[in-house]
Structure formats: C-alpha cells, structure tokens
Amino acid sequence: MKRICLWCLFVLAWPAAALCQVHSWIDKEGVRHYSSEPPENIQDVTDYRVLEGSGEIEPAVPLEKVNRAPAEKASSGVEIYTTSWCPICKKAKAWFVLNKIPYKEYDVEKSGENYAAYKRKGGKTGVPFIVVGDNRMEGFNADLIKSWLADGKKK
User: Fold this and answer.
1) Rounded to a whole number, what is the distance in angstroms from the first to the last CA of the chain?
2) What is the signed CA dihedral for 144, 48, 50, 14, rounded to 10 degrees?
3) Given a cut of 60, is residue 12 above it in pLDDT?
4) The whole model's pTM is what?
5) Among 23, 75, 67, 16, which residue's Cα sits nearest to residue 47?
6) What range defines the domain where residue 33 resides?
7) Is a pLDDT exceeding 50 seen at residue 71?
8) How many whole angstroms separate alpha carbon 6 and alpha carbon 106?
9) pLDDT of residue 125
10) What is the CATH number of the domain that holds 100?
C-alpha cells in the first residue's frame, strides 16, 4: 500500500516538475546558483542560463542582453508574436539575442492590437509566430530563419 501511495505521488508530481524553468548563474565569487527566479542583482552575474524542466539547456544569454527589451525598430525586419508563458517563444527570442538579430516582439495576450496584427499577418493557431519580410512561420526553426535572413541580404 505504501508503494502504491508513493507511486501515485510520483506520477502526479512528475509532470509539474517537467514544466518548470530553473535559472542558473555564477556570481562574482564564482559560485553557481540555481533558482526558480532570475537573479536579483544581474550586475553581479558572470554567466546566466535557463534550464528547462526536461533537462534541455538553453544557450547562455550574453549578460548585456539579459532583462532587456528587444530593439524597438528591427532593422532585420523580424517580428515575433508571443505569449509570456510559451517556452518555444523564449527559446526563439534567446536565439535572436545570441545571434544579434534585432526583432520586434508583440505579446498577443497583452493587447487586442497585437492579436489583431497576429491574425492580419497570417497567424492561425500558435506562437511563436515569426515574420521575416514576406515569410511566415508558426513555431521556431533556426535554419529556416537563417536562410530567410540571408536571402534578404542578397536583394
């Protein structure tokens, strides 16, 4: 009976653990920290990463880009429609930051205007919805975005 109760507890707790994010950073003394929240004093951080509950490690985000809003005017012509809770949106935005690709972000849940623009541009059922020039993508594929950006530079 005890084993059955423990098994049920494990089965119920495992999905919640798989969905959480863990923030990892190294402080100025070289000590690695793990938390469910980002560090309070980002100035004292030398390395910052977001670990997904699945064990997948996000790439290190350059410190000068942590907690910064994306470029107001995206010279690359990249727009991304997101929600605050979407892990793929976070991954896409981190990839743009790491590759120094400016983008304009629109959270479709924070504004009716953003949602209307998402629908007008061709968004159907999901986020992230990424627009690069005349190209559209629901989801995130870094190789395809690279090719779209390279094609845009050739013109």
Assistant:
1) 69
2) 160
3) no
4) 0.54
5) 23
6) 19-65
7) no
8) 44
9) 85
10) 3.40.30.10
